[in-house]
Amino acid sequence: MEYYQAIKTLHIIFAGMWLVNLFLESALKGFVINNENKIGEKKFIHLYLFFGNLLGVLGATGILITGISLVCFNYDYHFFQLTGNHWLTAKQVLTVVVLILTGTMIVPTAKKIRLAIGRDLESYQPIDESGYKSLRKLFRLNTIVNIIIFINFLLAITHKLIN
C-alpha cells in the first residue's frame, strides 16, 4: 500500500494524456479538414496520426497498467464486480471497449491512411478516395473513443458523489 498514492498519481497523469489527446485530436482534425486537397495536407494527416498514436499508446498503456495496479492494491476494488463499485465496473468495461476498438478498428484504419499518404510528405500527390474514406472512418472512430474516454473521466471524478 505504500506505493498506492504514487500509482494513483501516475494514473491521473495518464488520464490527463488521454484528455489532452481528446482536445488535440479535435484541433488537428480541423487542420486536416481545412487543408483537404491542398499542399501540406499530408503533413497535417501525418501529424494527426502521430500525436493520436503517441498520446493514445502512452495514455492507454499507462491507464491499463496503473488501473490494474490500483485494483490489485486496494482491497475495496475488484475486477468487473457487479455487486458493488458500479462506477469502477463501468470504467473497466468502457476501457475494454476502447482497447477492442483501438486494436480491431483504429490501428488497421490508421495503417491504411499511412499507406494512402505515402512516405514522401513533401510532394503533392493527391490522396485517393479510399484514403479519404479511411480518414473519415478514423475521425468517427476517434470521436467514439473520445466520448467513451470522457465518460470514463466523468465516472472517475464523480464516483464519490454517486456513492
Report what the structure shows.
The protein is mainly α and 163 residues long. The chain has one domain. Helices cover 80% and strands 0% of the residues. The chain is built from four helices and no strands. The longest helix has 34 residues, at 129-162. The relative contact order is 0.13.
**Can you give the mean pLDDT?**
86
Q: Biggest β-sheet, characterized?
A: none
Strand content: under 5%
Oligomeric state of the chains in view: single chain
Stretches where pLDDT is under 50 for at least 5 consecutive residues are none
Query: How many separate domains make up the residues?
Result: 1
Q: Using the CA coordinates, give the radius of gyration.
A: 18 Å
Sheet/helix structural class:
mainly alpha
How far apart are the termini?
A: 23 Å
SS summary, helix count:
4
Features:
mainly alpha; 163 residues; elongated
SSE blueprint and pairings:
Blueprint: H1 4-34, H2 41-73, H3 86-117, H4 129-162
